[in-house]
Design brief:
binds nicotinamide-adenine-dinucleotide; EC 4.1.1.35; 13 strands; binds uridine-5'-diphosphate
């Protein structure tokens, strides 16, 4: 194909970015869109620790400078305030595309999934970079197949309140495969299941952050509906390992990346009580429209082809986010002059 490759700086690997790990591994230049967000910032930590050069592109829609501040002053780290809905010119080896208004509170308003993904694919095509899309389990909608395999096409309402997110990601997957087939871009697709950990947005309405913050603030845990709907919760370090294995591996995907341990929201509330405050009360609230009844990844494909599986259980992972939440809630209270 005829697309241009970046210049000839011998320090950096080129094109496929397929570089051997360990001693003698060449530094890659990597863009992480949404790198100031929850998942992105943990990915950045790991890439910097591995010795790579990292450029974060973020418009701070839901992300925070605080998540990456510890890299300021490191010459291998760069933070660019930019909205991926606008074109950008860069020269890199790999693009991890995470930018997305990811929470129910924010995702209704934004064309990032379509326009942002198109721009990052255009960038990947021009410079011959490898492109990884962080898609979501939401592409399966309210699934009629359980657990969900990558071969399942999903059960999604195209005009519902969640459609901007799930249909947006489905379109992003389509664009990714079109650029792969049509323009020869080397692509990877991850379908991420519910993930939690330190630096998660405090007030974006996700169930884990809600329950943990509520328990710390001594407020009742709000269970929506009857609380019998299920989700599978993955600790963020497991996800980051999965994303990197996918990027460095040989397979396009899509791959489910999630923890198959399945919990009802009532069970989750119980684990949060055991972890933070056994006296916390539960309060039932009406559920949102189109809420999927159950969700659990089948991860056999990632196990077989990426040699990846999660290692951190919910009971091990939840305590690891409590101190971070406590500190941030304390700072917030101090900010309010309480
Ligand atoms: P997050 O909100 O913490 O991170 C998203 C980041 O993207 C934020 O820093 C935000 O400021 C940035 N962003 C949003 N729109 C942008 C734009 N137009 N231009 C530049 N930056 C923009 O969310 P997260 O949980 O870290 O999610 C990261 C990715 O993983 C998202 O693509 C999300 O859809 C996907 N994902 C996450 C989960 C999960 O449980 N956390 C589950 C499924 C998929
Ligand atoms: N693009 C970008 N940076 C680049 C190359 C492309 O932001 O280095 C954007 C470009 O502005 C366009 C999108 O990516 O909106 C798709 O680019 P492509 O070249 O595939 O499509 P075309 O511009 O030919 O329609
Ligand atoms: N949920 C809940 N209490 C809350 C927030 C969410 O019971 O305070 C429920 C929500 O109705 C859904 C599940 O928890 O059934 C997971 O919601 P979340 O928004 O975290 O993730 P998603 O629905 O995207 O999987």
């Amino acid at each position: 194909s005829s697309y241009r490759r970046p210049g000839s700086d011998p320090f950096f690997s080129r094109g496929s970015g397929r570089v051997p790990a360990g001693i003698g591994r060449r530094r890659s230049r990597i863009v992480v869109t949404g790198g100031a967000g929850f998942v992105g910032s943990h990915l950045v930590d790991k890439l910097i620790a591995r010795g790579d050069d990292v450029i974060v592109i973020d418009n701070f829609f839901t992300g925070r400078k605080e998540n990456v501040m510890h890299h300021f002053g490191n010459p291998r780290f760069e933070l660019v305030r930019h909205d991926v809905v606008e074109p950008i010119l860069l020269e890199v080896d790999q693009i991890y595309h995470l930018a997305c208004p990811a929470s129910p509170v924010h995702y209704k308003y934004n064309p990032t999934n379509v326009m942002g993904t198109l721009n990052m694919l255009g960038l990947a095509k021009r410079i011959g970079a490898k492109f990884l899309l962080t898609s979501t389990s939401e592409v399966y909608g309210d699934p009629l197949e359980h657990p969900q395999k990558e071969t399942y096409w999903g059960h999604v309402n195209p005009i519902g309140v969640r459609s901007c997110y799930d249909e947006g990601k489905r379109t992003a997957e389509t664009l990714t495969m079109d650029y792969h087939r049509g323009a020869g871009v080397e692509v990877r697709i991850a379908r991420i299941f519910n993930t939690y950990g330190p630096r998660m947005c405090l007030d974006d309405g996700r169930v884990v952050s809600n329950f943990v913050a509520q328990a710390i603030r001594k407020q009742p845990l709000t269970v929506y509906g009857d609380g019998k709907q299920t989700r599978s919760f993955q600790y963020v370090s497991d996800l980051v390992n999965g994303l990197m294995a996918l990027m460095e591996g040989e397979h396009v995907g899509p791959f489910n990346l999630g923890n198959p341990g399945e919990f009802t929201m009532l069970e989750l509330a119980q684990v949060v009580k055991e972890t933070i405050d056994s006296s916390a009360r539960i309060e039932f609230r009406p559920n949102t429209a189109d809420d999927p009844h159950k969700r659990k990844p089948d991860i056999s494909k990632a196990k077989d082809l990426l040699n990846w599986e999660p290692r951190v259980s919910l009971r091990e992972g939840l305590p690891l986010m409590v101190t971070d939440f406590q500190n941030r809630i304390l700072n917030e209270d101090e900010g309010k002059g309480n």
